[in-house]
Amino acid sequence: MSLYEASFRVRHECPYREISERNPELTIREWYLDDCQVVEITAPDVPGADVLDRIDDIGTVLHESVDESGLHVVTQSCLCSLEGSIVERFEEHNCLYQPPTIHRQGWEHYTVIAFDEADVRALLQDLEDDREIEVLSKTSIEQEPVPHSMLAPVDRLFEGLTDRQLAALRLALERGYYEQPRRTSLRELAAQTDIARSTYEEHLRKAENKLLTSAGEFLRLVTAQSTGDPLSVEQGRSERPAD
After folding, report:
1. Do residues 20 and 26 touch, judged by C-beta distance below 8 A?
2. Among 17, 60, 111, 181, which is least packed, fewest CB within 10 Å?
């Protein structure tokens, strides 16, 4: 299977152009989720108060820290400003967006992958009609596995899980239930909540089932090009006696 990857940058009026253009030391990474966008801002040094105020205006600050590597800020904001966005145009041309978008020095950097080179060309021509664009690379990817980063937006993996199912799954993960050997039991996990063990186990099993079902389609894509049989499944079938 051949894939076509294109990396390009555009100049476009958006909430992050001005801040990245005026502060070239900043790197802004942007991810789009179902109902919001999450932005990570990093800088080698702590910027001035005016920049920090502008960051506060972008959205709700979820995390902020300063260490020897510089400033790290994570914000969340709504998607109302993304109506008719460039990401929607990727979809119109059958191109798969690979997050994150990287904003640096007034430019937005994108990478897309398509199964047809003509779709990549059509997308780039479409974008050239209304914005400044610079193509950084176009590459044919021969016989490579589908990149994991384009397979599963995180929010899709958790579709359909209730708040209690998510909470049960997180508690089990954080307490070492899935480690080998296990560091806790279902009884001990349930004892940390205000619900019965049977109820906690029901939430956990439903969460596991939904998560694995959602991940299944991506697992099949990841393994679609594998020609091996590491578990000797086919050999086991051939060795079973016929009915």
Report:
1. yes
2. 181
Record the tokens describing residue 165, joined without a space. Answer: 């199912």
C-alpha–C-alpha distance, residues 133 and 121, integer Å: 13
Q: Which of 39, 22, 7 is nearest to 127 (CA)?
A: 7
| 16-20, 189-193, 233-237: least confidently modelled range | 233-237
Q: Determine the Cα–Cα distance for residues 5 and 94; give it in Å rounded to an integer.
A: 12
pLDDT of residue 186 exceeding 90, the answer is: yes
Q: Which amino acid is at 87?
A: V
Per residue in 21-59, is it b (16+ CB within 10 Å) or e — as a string?
eebeebbbbbbbeeebbbbbbebeeebeeebeebbeebb
| Selection from 220, 216, 221, 100 nearest residue 157 by Cα | 216
Give the pLDDT of residue 80: 46
| Six token digits for residue 160 | 């359909």
Burial 178-203 (b: 16+ CB within 10 A, else e): eeeeeebebeebbeeeeeeeeebbeb
Rounded distance, CA 227 to CA 33, Å?
Answer: 34
Sequence ranges of the domains in the chain: 3-143, 154-223
